[in-house]
Amino acid sequence: DTEVTQTPKHLVMGMTNKKSLKCEQHMGHRAMYWYKQKAKKPPELMFVYSYEKLSINESVPSRFSPECPNSSLLNLHLHALQPEDSALYLCASSQDPNREYEQYFGPGTRLTVT
Amino acid sequence: AQSVAQPEDQVNVAEGNPLTVKCTYSVSGNPYLFWYVQYPNRGLQFLLKYITGDNLVKGSYGFEAEFNKSQTSFHLKKPSALVSDSALYFCAVRDANTGGFKTIFGAGTRLFVKA
């Protein structure tokens, strides 16, 4: 299994809502990543989890809250988002943090904040 | 500091013709170089990588790239383009001698292959 799955595929939420994005991989990878991608732009790194511990937070606002319950799962909890947070949110994984250059990406969650 | 540049926002090519998508980079040490492709509303798919060894790297879907150290380039090529190759292509680089998370993506090049 060389797949990273993400749910939901699409999400529309209001600025007062609380929602969560889910990412899952069963490749035994020990590093997982969240990216934000605006249209026609490269992905921007948000968070890196290394062996289930948060190792990098790229100065992301606290309305985004990551969680890594186990080595296969990565969540992104969303609360009080702004319309400018609308984007494609990509999850990725790599065998370990030292091989972050070989990442496997999920299909993404298209988030729209109204 | 490391950087990567994709000088063309868009590349247009006719089906059956060869295609080239350009990428240049700057790192202080040895580079690791990558190409990813992204289809509409999808995540990035890994195409190929250069870590060490032969300068000509072959990847998925008939793509290849040539590492040119003197020109600090890693252009993506395919001998005969398909309409289905139309997508957004990202070049990425990291310095092999740098610890931590340091992979940088280029701005992306949109490839249009016309039938």
Structure description:
The complex is a heterodimer of chains A (114) and B (115). The mean pLDDT of chain A is 92. Chain A contains no helices and eleven strands. Chain A is mainly β. Chain B has no helices and twelve strands. The model of chain B has no long low-confidence stretch (mean pLDDT 91). Chain B has 115 residues and is an all-beta fold. Chain B is 0% helix and 52% strand. In chain B, strands 2, 5, 6, 10, 11 and 12 form a six-stranded mixed sheet that branches. The chains are: A mainly beta (114), B mainly beta (115). At the A-B interface, strand 9 and strand 10 of A face strand 5, strand 6 and strand 10 of B.
- Tell me, rounded to a whole number, the average pLDDT of chain A: 92
What is the N-to-C order of secondary-structure elements of chain A (H for helix, E for strand)? Answer: EEEEEEEEEEE
Provide the β-strand percentage band of chain B.
over 45%
Strand percentage of chain A, roughly? Answer: over 45%
- Give the % helix of chain B: under 10%
Unreliably modeled segments of chain A: none
Quick tags:
heterodimer, A: 114 residues, mainly beta, seven-stranded mixed sheet, four-stranded antiparallel sheet, 11 strands, 0% helix, globular, B: 115 residues
Q: TL;DR of this structure?
A:
Chain A has strands at residues 4-7, 10-13, 18-25, 31-37, 44-50, 53-57, 64-70, 73-79, 87-94, 104-105, 109-113. Chain A has 114 residues and is mainly beta.
